Amino acid sequence: MAKVEDNNIGVIVKATNFAAIKHKDQRRKDANKTPYINHPIGVAQILVEEGKITDPAVIQTAILHDTVEDTDTTLQEIELHFGAEVRCLVEEVTDDKSLPKLERKMNQIKKGPKKSSKAKQVKLADKLYNLRDLVEHVPECWGEDRVQEYFLWSAHVIKGMLGTNEKLEKELAKVLQTRSIDLYGELAEYEGATIVGKTD
């Protein structure tokens, strides 16, 4: 397992506490209404355990990655508590909620290749968590077509970030293959007609 240095544990605990407070009333869309905080903690876990990431800024960003997008948190607040680097990384992985849903989805495909390596690490781990979660816990009111479309969209996003973390990419290829999607082959065109709702 990757080892996070002892002198960085405090900032990671601080980020976890901050995210837990911000997400305290939120739930995932699965039938069990899982506490939302499980997600960012799980993304950080994937980075450390599977991606072998020890950079505290990347781990903090994973924990905080949905706070600006899905709570009342501001980027200024992130910088005040966690510094300029984490603020910039959180900004990189945050969708612009003022845009229509489909436009945000397409932006993730188009802008993924241009993101910093650290932001890409977080995005890959986020996608891996969400795809695995969909295999086990399909959100209520999601049909088979919508799940398949989410997998295809994710594959397009991931493909634009290949070459970032081989370990994470191998795991992503495995989970996409459960839906007969070859990450390293030619992907079917993505149009995004039915992708709505929060599972980004």
Topology:
Elements (H helix, E strand, L loop, with lengths): L5 H17 L15 H12 L6 H9 L2 H4 L4 H8 L1 H9 L8 H11 L5 H20 L7 H16 L6 H12 L23
Helix pairs in contact: 1-3, 2-3, 2-8, 3-6, 3-8, 5-6, 7-9, 8-9, 8-10
Walkthrough of the structure:
Helix content is 59%, strand content 0%. The chain is an all-alpha fold and 200 residues long. The protein is globular and about 45 Å long.
Key phrases:
single chain, 200 residues, mainly alpha
Brief rundown of the structure:
The chain is mainly α and 200 residues long.
- Order of helix and strand elements from N to C terminus: HHHHHHHHHH
What is the overall silhouette? globular
Return the average pLDDT rounded to an integer.
Answer: 92
From the N-terminal CA to the C-terminal CA, the straight-line distance is: 27 Å
Q: Can you count the helices?
A: 10
How much helix, percentage-wise, in residues? 55-70%
Number of E strands: 0
Summarize the biggest pleated sheet: none
Content of β-strand: under 5%
